[in-house]
Amino acid sequence: MITLKGEHIYLRALEPEDLEFIYQVENDESIWEISCTQTPYSRFLIKQYLENAHKDIFEVKQLRLVISNYKDEPLGLIDLFDFDFKNRRAGLGILVKNFEDRFKGYGSEALDLLIKYSFSHLALHQLHCCISEDNEASLKLFLSKGFIEVGLKKDWNLVNGEYKNEYLFQLINH
After folding, report:
1. Domain residue spans in the chain?
2. pTM assigned to the model
3. Is the dihedral of CA 94, 97, 99, 100 positive or negative?
4. Domain covering 4-172: architecture
5. Which of 31, 135, 142, 164 is the most buried (most CB within 10 A)?
6. 120-155, pLDDT tens digit by residue?
7. CB proximity list for 66: less than 8 A, separation 6 or greater
8. How far apart are CA 18 and CA 13, in angstroms?
């Protein structure tokens, strides 16, 4: 896979050394709402996942990349999922793990790199994402990249006993 380099960060493939980082991300209950996670993940399951992470996006229908700074520290993850080659589309998700690393442009730069990669190398026609109505940072980020709100899913996610709406966004490569 080609290296996706930006000014402050780069995107790279998952490595076995990412086990602890992924374990921390997947088991951080404060972000389960964003990732639609319901239960914790064991190190054993994450190790198995990492052993298969080398598989091609055309085979497994997803691609997870690490957002890394130039000190080789992992900052977050960015994913393509529900990869549909026939219709040339994929879902997109992004997470910068630590709050102190957010709002510094890392997510914006990572999103730029993955959008460019998706349209130029994977020949996708469109990307889509779903964002909770109260995730103001993600709403602002995706709108700034040209994503268009195309739908509202009412009472979509039950969070702490209350239903939340979720927006559907698309970015079409013209």
Report:
1. 4-172
2. 0.90
3. negative
4. 3-Layer(aba) Sandwich (3.40)
5. 142
6. 999 999 999 999 999 999 999 999 999 999 999 999
7. 11, 12, 13, 14, 15, 18, 21, 74, 76, 77
8. 10
